[in-house]
From TrEMBL:
This is CENP-V/GFA domain-containing protein. One of its GO terms (molecular function) is metal ion binding. Keywords: Lyase, Metal-binding, Zinc. Gene3D superfamilies: glutathione-dependent formaldehyde- activating enzyme (gfa). It comes from Paraphaeosphaeria sporulosa.
Length: 273
């Protein structure tokens, strides 16, 4: 793996800091949604999501994410990962497939880097939410087969394939075990789609790992270039702010402004930071 630049780890976590996660590779896509469901779900006026293969989210920290599974009337299974302590919504999988997850972009440590590639349900956007000129939008849900870069579609295909192989393996193991112990608890073996820890069961070999990196490298580099450009702008602004005496003046108005987002009092959880 020495020949390809490793993707810098992207970290994120919940409000109280006890549930942390890391993205093992670059996201597949970023999108914003202005539908009313997302507004309700997130408690905001529009939602931003960073999509990645579920198996490439590694959780760490004091508390593992709490996974809540629901089965929708149409049979789709959805897994929602939240912090078991503070309740922050971290990611959900199953909207399209449990193989991929939509991370709540705001839970990333540097959400600044994940500008949405498209804003969907633009027809229900709240009028005082203003988008930068040139923002890509669409009415209703965006069609990922048209909007995702080819490299991401390839990655999705590969992820689906890996999931199918894991399922087959699980079925085989279950069959083998049922021969030994007929009344083995079947529930434990039911392949209920991905959960973040499922990847522990199948180790990816080096060759496959390398192949995956090479496949996505171009997309990663493009994204990285964008990110570093944005970071440079960011650093410059921050550098200016750090001049003695300027820091207070520059920062306070932004954080103190009585904007639409009332500050929640973190009560006991704040001491954990
Ligand atoms: Zn938390
Ligand atoms: Zn939505």
């Amino acid at each position: 793996m020495s020949k390809s630049k490793p993707f810098p780890a992207i970290h994120g976590g919940c409000f109280c800091g006890s549930t942390r996660y890391r993205l093992e590779t670059a996201p597949l896509f970023n999108h914003a949604c202005h539908c009313q469901d997302c507004n309700k779900h997130t408690g905001s006026v529009f939602a931003c999501f960073t999509t990645i293969e579920t198996e490439f989210i590694t959780s760490f920290g004091k508390t593992p994410p709490k996974i809540t599974t629901t089965v929708r009337p149409n049979g789709l299974v959805r897994h929602l990962a939240t912090c078991g302590t503070c309740g922050t919504r971290l990611w959900a999988s199953g909207d399209r497939s449990t193989v991929i997850a939509d991370i709540n972009t705001g839970t990333l440590d540097l959400p600044e880097l994940m500008e949405p590639d498209v804003h969907e349900y633009i027809e229900s956007k709240i009028s005082w939410v203003l988008l930068p000129e040139g923002t890509k939008t669409c009415k209703g849900p965006f069609d990922y087969t048209k909007w995702w870069p080819k490299s991401s579609l390839k990655r999705l295909e590969a992820a689906i394939q890996r999931a199918q192989e894991r399922k087959k393996l699980q079925v085989k193991v279950a069959q083998a075990e049922s021969l030994d112990v007929e009344d083995e608890k079947e529930a434990d073996k039911t392949p209920t789609a991905q959960t973040p820890d499922e990847k522990d069961e199948v180790a990816e070999d080096d060759e496959e790992f390398e192949r995956r990196y090479l496949e996505t490298e171009k997309a990663l580099q493009e994204r990285l270039e964008q990110l570093s450009l944005r970071l440079k702008v960011h650093e410059k602004v921050q550098g200016d702010d750090l001049r003695p005496g300027v820091v207070q003046a520059a920062k306070e108005p932004a954080s103190e402004s009585p904007s639409a987002e009332p500050k929640e009092v973190p009560a006991a959880t704040v001491s954990e930071k």
